[in-house]
Each structure stands twice: as C-alpha cells, then as structure tokens.
C-alpha cells in the first residue's frame, strides 16, 4: 500500500486541546511539514503567544518559548539577534498581535527584523471568552459586542498585512483562509516562502491565516468555514499583499 501522508516528524503524536473546527491544528500541521521539508528542525524556535496557542510547546517537536501577552515579536527579535542562524517564528493570534501587541509588531516590521510571523486571525479573543478584537468584523457579535460591532464606537477591523506592508522592512506579506484543501495548500506555499526568506536573511515576513472559532462564533465547524468564505474574506482579501522577492 502506498503511503500518501504521514505525521510530520516535527509534530508530536499527542491529543489536541483545540476545539472542534479550530484552525490552529491545521496551521500547526502546515508549519511542521515545512520545517521537515526545509530540514530546519534542529534550529527552529517558535515563540508562543498568550491565547489559544499558548500550549504550542505541547505539539511541536522542536524548541518553543513562551512570551508575555503581545510581546512575542520582541522576544523573537531578541532571539534572532542573539542567534541569527536560528529560524525564529513568532506565532500569534489577532488579540495578541493586533491589540496588546500592536506596538511590538509594528516596530519589529519597521526595523525589518529577520523573523517570520504566523498570524492566526479568527476575529476575536478565543482563550478568554470570545471578546471583541481589533479584527472583529462590523456587525459581528462577541461577548463584548452582543449587538454587533459598531464602527462609530469601535472603529473598523484592522487589516494587519496591509498595515505592515507600508514599511520598507517588510519584504513579504500574504493572507490565506483555512477553508479547504486548495486554500490550505496555498497557505502552505505562502508560509514556506516566508520561511525561505528568513533563511536567506532578506527581511521581515508575515503570513496571515483566516481561521475558524466555531465555539465563540456559535456555529458548527462546517458553518464556520462558510462564515470565513462569506464574511471574513470580503473584509480580509486573500492573496499576496506584498512581495519584494519575486
């Protein structure tokens, strides 16, 4: 029998704590596959955030360091400057990156730090109860916007990739949706290019994954995928936002 898929060596064989339909598990698998394919497991370090991915060290078979809430890019910067030969990955959710950590991500991008950011955007704070995040859609109901987000009170959703693309230090920014095999394959190609850019010491790169949170969206996993395609993608268009390394 031909084996067409095996668990990546960089991904531990353990039970997940993520909710059914959550996109973090898919992103973990993509990242682990790429690390194996690039042969960089022994020099890869992921910086885990405060958020649903706070337990990332339970899943990856390489080094993972924890950072205070929002300070993931700052920790990643320090690690990369001390150990420039290592592959440093800042793994963040939208609350960690776009709210409390906005200053850190902006300045790391502006400096062109040689790190790769994996940005998982589900439009709310997943770990702490489903509160509104900077990426929450207009009209979206959350624990803190039970009537829906009103732009007059809360502003518009922040488009992180477009924002960071303004900085010259950012050489690659892309966005994909975790909604099916085709899009997952596209996302893997984006992330592999982002890590290749770091290996070539070319500058800052970020890949954003539009991810489902069925639990706090109060949808089934299948409905959550449909929600991404019908609601999130129009607000956060998928594709390559910036690429100076053609």
Helices and strands, with pairings:
Blueprint (H helix, E strand, L loop, with lengths): L23 H15 L5 E5 L14 E4 L5 H11 L4 E7 H7 L1 H10 L4 E6 L2 E2 L5 E2 L18 H4 L5 H5 L5 E8 L3 H19 L4 E7 L3 H4 L3 H15 L3 E5 L3
Parallel strand pairs: 1-2, 1-3, 3-4, 4-8, 7-8
Antiparallel strand pairs: 5-6, 7-9
General description of the model:
The N and C termini lie far apart (40 Å). The chain has one domain: 3-Layer(aba) Sandwich (Rossmann fold). α1 (24-38) packs across α7 and α3 (94-100) packs across α4 (102-111). The mean pLDDT is 95. It is α/β, with parallel strands linked by helices. The protein is globular. Helices cover 37% and strands 19% of the residues. 50% of the residues are buried. The strands form 2 sheets. Strands 2-1-3-4-8-7-9 form a 7-stranded mixed β-sheet, with helices on both faces. The chain has a two-stranded antiparallel ribbon with strand order 5-6.
Unreliable residue runs: none
Helix content: 25-40%
CA radius of gyration = 17 Å
Please state the average pLDDT score: 95
What's the tally of helices?
A: 9
SSE-based structural type: alpha/beta
Shape: globular
Number of domains: 1
Q: Sheet bearing the most strands, described?
A: 7 strands, mixed
How many strand units?
9
End-to-end Cα distance: 40 Å
Order of helices and strands: HEEHEHHEEEHHEHEHHE
CATH architectural grouping: 3-Layer(aba) Sandwich
CATH superfamily: Thiamin diphosphate (ThDP)-binding fold, Pyr/PP domains
Strand order of the largest sheet: 2-1-3-4-8-7-9
| Text of the CATH class | Alpha Beta
Instruction: Determine the strand fraction and express it as a percent band.
Output: 15-25%
């Amino acid at each position: 029998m031909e084996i067409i898929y095996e668990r990546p060596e960089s991904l531990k064989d353990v039970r997940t704590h993520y909710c059914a339909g959550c996109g973090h598990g898919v992103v973990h698998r993509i990242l682990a596959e790429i690390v194996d394919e690039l042969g960089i497991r022994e020099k890869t370090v992921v910086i885990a955030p405060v958020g649903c991915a706070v337990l990332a060290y339970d899943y990856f078979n390489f080094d993972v360091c924890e950072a205070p809430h929002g300070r993931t890019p700052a920790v990643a910067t320090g690690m990369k400057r001390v150990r420039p030969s290592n592959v440093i990955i800042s793994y963040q959710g939208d609350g960690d990156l776009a709210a409390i950590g906005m200053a850190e991500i902006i300045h790391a991008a502006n400096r062109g730090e040689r790190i790769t950011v994996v940005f998982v955007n589900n439009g709310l704070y997943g770990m702490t109860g489903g509160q509104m995040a900077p990426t929450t859609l207009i009209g979206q109901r959350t624990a803190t916007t039970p009537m829906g987000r009103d732009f007059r009170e809360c502003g518009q959703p922040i488009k992180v990739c477009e924002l960071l693309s303004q900085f010259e230090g950012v050489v690659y920014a892309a966005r994909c949706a975790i909604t099916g095999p085709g899009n997952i394959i596209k996302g893997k190609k984006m992330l592999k290019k982002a890590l290749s850019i770091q290996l070539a010491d070319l500058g800052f790169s970020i890949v954003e994954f539009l991810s489902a949170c069925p639990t706090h969206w109060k949808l089934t996993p299948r409905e959550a995928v449909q929600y991404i395609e019908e609601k999130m993608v129009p607000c956060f268009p998928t594709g390559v936002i910036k690429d100076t390394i053609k």
